[in-house]
Amino acid sequence: VPLNAEISGRYDAAASGVDGLSASFVLPALGEVHASGSARLGPAPSFRIKAGGHLGIEPLYSLYSQSGAPPESRMRLDGDIVAEFDVNKDQGGMSIDGRVIVDGASAESPATKTAVQGMKAELPVHLRLAPRPSAGGAKNSAVPSSAENSGAAGAVNANEPADRGSLQIKEIRTPSVTLQPPALVILGRTNAYRVEPFAIEVFGSRIEM
Questions:
Q1: CA distances, 189 to each of 85, 129, 174 (Å)
Q2: pTM strictly above 0.85
Q3: Is there a contact between 114 and 173 (Cβ–Cβ < 8 Å)?
C-alpha cells in the first residue's frame, strides 16, 4: 500500500523531550491519519497528543481480512470512519477523549445473504487507563485502589455527566426478516456506556428494551 508520510518536531535535549511534534500519514487507497503534540522521554515518559483520521471502511477491512477471498464471496462495505482524540499520559495513567463518527455505512454478506443499510453513528470516547504496577509486582503508589479513592483511573463515576452519542440503522435484511431498527441514544461516561431504552417491532409485536 503506497504511503505518504510527513513527520516533524523539535528535540529538546535539556528537557529530554520533543516539542512541536507533527505527523501526517496519507494512504491514497485508504485515507489519512494525523497527530500533533509533545512528549517527554525521561524515566517517567509522558505525552499530550491530538490525533485523528479519516478512513474508508471497505479498504480498511480488506487490508487484513479479504485479501485471499474470491470476489463473489467478499463482504461488500461502504462508508467512512472519522475520529478525533486527545491522548494524554503522565504518572497518573493515560486518558483518551474524543469521538468516532461512522457516516453512510453499509455492509452486505453474499455468503449469508444478510445486509445492513444506512448506518450512521456518533460515539463518544472517554477512557482512563491506570499505570501498570512497578517492576517487582509492587503497586504503583500514584494509583489508589478503588477502596481508597473511587475517582482513581479506571473507576466508573455514576454522577459524571453523560456525553450523548447515537446509532442509526435504516434497515437490517436477512433471508427471513427485514427490520427497520429505531435510532439508539448512547450515553458515554468515563470507561462506561449505556444505551437508552428503546422499542422494536418484530412480526407485528412490539418489544421494549
A1: 15, 14, 34
A2: no
A3: yes
